[in-house]
Design goal:
The chain is an alpha/beta fold. The structure holds adenosine-5'-diphosphate and magnesium ion (MG). Belongs to the cation transport ATPase (P-type) (TC 3.A.3) family. Type IB subfamily.
């Protein structure tokens, strides 16, 4: 594009809250044939809320059949039958060492339910899988199936409960205490209002729309369905360090991918993508790695970015 056209494009972008880092990006955006959205914080608000707490007894049977989080009073506190309140207290205390949105929701949910949340004695992040903490000299795990399996704890008694919650698009997490599976907690997020509209507009343009997430397959597919992304185009359970490999794999099929993300985890993927697009309220690391920043946190602005690129290039013909 001519310098004048580039300047017009950059200005129109800025007026629409779409910040292009350079003229070459304005030219590149129109060639994008695949848009890969991160799930949490990009397609969804990223504001998790605790929705469910389920306690299990020694036989791995749910203490109640779940649903709402009405704690049962906490009168039963033996090792083999933790109440929902005990499960939530343990999970929230263990998560106090974490800044993860999933953790913040568990802690806030516990506090709202009148539970006193203290700090764990010891805490360790297991990226992409959960956390491991020491609470009152006992080990507490909160996280996904692999986290428990890696510690020799069988998550399968919770499978039915996990699948029910995941099919609702929730992120369900297992809670283990002193080597036993004791419960499940779940957080839910809401899909951004314009996410579906953005996906449809991109698909109408002939762009393949994909989703990438560290979250589990079932939750990811439930969210994909809500926004109109083909379940085949979902890449779930992708570890933070593997997101950029996933983008490279897509691009090795001669595709020109735009990655749209907000997290620290997304930064390497934003950097390797043909066009990296950061959500403005996202982390600084993501914004620095990206080529475009969407100041309004609106997924539909991805469509605008591509249209501005079209218009800029048309001016030079
Ligand atoms: P995302 O891509 O959605 O940000 P992450 O890679 O951070 O996902 O986490 C992947 C999965 O690991 C989560 O869906 C959850 O099951 C588990 N996990 C990560 N952090 C935590 C945590 N602090 N507490 C419980 N589970 C966690
Ligand atoms: Mg995210």
């Amino acid at each position: 594009a001519t310098p004048a056209a580039t300047m017009v494009g950059t200005t129109i972008g800025a007026q629409n809250g779409v910040l292009f880092k350079g003229g070459d990006i304005l030219e590149r955006a129109r060639n994008v044939d695949t848009v890969v959205f991160d799930k949490t914080g990009t397609l969804t608000e990223g504001e998790m809320e605790l929705t469910d707490v389920v306690g299990f007894n020694a036989d791995g049977q749910p203490v109640t059949d779940g649903g709402d989080t009405a704690a049962d009073g906490g009168q039963v506190t033996t090792r083999d039958r933790l109440s929902e309140e005990d499960v939530l207290r343990l999970a929230a205390t263990a998560e106090s060492g974490s800044e993860h949105p999933l953790a913040r929701a568990i802690i806030e949910g516990a506090e709202e339910r009148g539970i006193d949340v203290t700090d764990p004695d010891d805490f360790e992040n297991v990226p992409g899988h959960g956390i491991r903490a020491t609470v009152s000299e006992s080990e507490v795990l909160v996280g996904n199936r692999k986290l428990l399996r890696d510690s020799g704890i069988d998550p399968s008694p919770a499978e039915e409960t996990m699948e029910r919650l995941e099919n609702e698009g929730k992120t369900a997490m297992l809670v283990a205490y002193e080597g036993d599976l004791v419960g499940v907690v779940a957080d839910a997020d809401t899909v951004k209002e314009s996410a579906t509209e953005a996906v449809i507009a991109l698909q109408e343009r002939g762009v393949d729309v994909m989703m990438i997430t560290g979250d589990n397959e079932r939750t990811a597919r439930a969210v994909a369905e809500q926004v109109g992304i083909d379940p085949e185009n979902v890449r779930a359970e992708v570890l933070p360090e593997d997101k950029s490999d996933a983008i490279e794999a897509i691009q090795s099929e001669a595709r020109q991918a735009m990655m749209v993300g907000d997290g620290v985890n997304d930064a390497p993927a934003l950097a390797v993508a043909h066009v990296g697009c950061a959500i403005g309220s996202g982390t600084d690391v993501a914004i620095e790695a990206a080529d475009v920043t969407l100041m309004r946190d609106d997924p539909y602005d991805v469509v605008k970015a591509i249209r501005i690129s079209d218009a800029t290039l048309e001016k030079i013909k």
